[in-house]
Request: fold
Amino acid sequence: MKRGFLFLLCILGGCDSGLQQIDRNVDRLMEERSLSIGSHAPGVSLQKDSVFTESIEDTNPSTINPSNDELVFVSAKELNAREIANTLQEADGFLSENNTLLTLDDALSWGSLHAKEFEFAQYDYLSTTLSLLSELHVWGPRFSNKISNTLDGDSTGGLYETSFDVVNDYQVSQNLYNGGTVSASALTSFAKSVHGASTSSSTSDTALGLDFEIPLLSGSGAVARESLIQAKRNLVYGARTYERFRREFYREIAGDYLSLVVQKQSLHNAQMGVESLQHLANRQAALYGSGRTRLYDSVDAENQALAAVASLSQSWERYRLALDRFKIRIGWPIESDIDIVPAMIGVVPPEVNVSDAVVQALLFRLDLQNEYNQLGDAKRGVANAVNSLLPDATFTVGIGTDSDPNKPLRFSGDDIDFVAGLTFSVPLDKETERIAVRQRQISLEKAKRNYRESRDGVAVSVRSALRSIEVFQFTLELQERNVEIAKLGLDSINADPDRVSVLDQTRAISDLQSAKDSRDSAKRDVELSIIDYLLQAGQLRINQDGTLVLPTE
Reply:
């Protein structure tokens, strides 16, 4: 019954249409602020809750905790090592055939729509926009209407004298730009008196009023609209923070994806190593069977092959776990199986001057711009605190008139009353306000130091990112050479395997696999170091679908 009554009130009050209007205003403000900084506004909507299904009024929510006797445990069958080895060798093809292939762009586009952290960033932006809408409403005209009904009965000698009063109080108020308020009111009253059962009389009138209240010293000027100024600036900060998040999100998702690429390539390298070791084991077994080698060499080769299979099994499990975590990261359905498509980002190392890169980063970094503007907020806070030291002086004006008797809608204009006043408060005790000024000044100095530290941090991060590109380029070149050297070593062994021990052959196979893994990791690190530089320098640009805008020469 109570819920139905509240629902009826909501419908009568235009609840749904009012929320839709708020949503339209939010979309408009977010679009304006995002476009003003060259970004894209998110499309945020509140979804119907499909997770929590229990009654929110249940005082005894159910608990599921079966006893040990109710649990079912089935022992696994004995494992067959050869079957496991065969399954692992076919895992790559099975994974590609049965799972959804996911490219980097697909992952980024999906993550920008479904990733939880992306949604949280959008909610923060949305909350900031709603705060501004609330503040804009406070600074717009505010309407109110109150209707009061009173029934009064007095008993005198067993007889009742009853009266029925209806009062309608309608008001419109507006905050003034430099402080104070102006309000207009219309107070209409209707009174009906009943004497006994047959005698009655009624009266009605309307009183109109216009009132001004204006501070002249303390609370006057920009300090009066401080909340509005800060709310508007906060929306700009929110737009920058959201765009900065989009760039950081791209870097993190791209890093996770390329790490999966490296893991998958490492599995391929390990599979090739297993095949090489199995070939070596089969050859050693054949040589032992013909009496051309020792039993130890044959057994050692077979053991090395089995160890490689065991290591490959662990690598496959780590890869599957990484895939599951990546699905959670981008909001992909956990029950749906995916596999990634080996690919690179396609960025090339930039040729820039370090000093120019630092200067551009100090100009372009959105988070640094936020800190700089928040330094202005701290300065404005000091000015507002100083304003509170001024005396309180308020000028008030009130104008009113009443309607003709029993004619609430007719005004002759002959009887207009007014009142004006000036209130002045001598500041005998402003110790608390003076302490607040000092606190604001200390906060300002802290903000200055934090901003200088942030500038230095940006400069250091840009220089470090540029140096990292050079380091990873050199590392990649070195790893390419290591792969060629490892291939030459293995080829020389395969040309005359009889003169080389089994230990040296297995070591050569392992060295080639390690060299390929290091080379693939170095390729990833080069591209991510370039993305890191673009991010640190404030030059990373992301499309609306979350994909990268490649830098142009």
About this structure: Residues 1-13 have pLDDT under 50 and may be disordered.
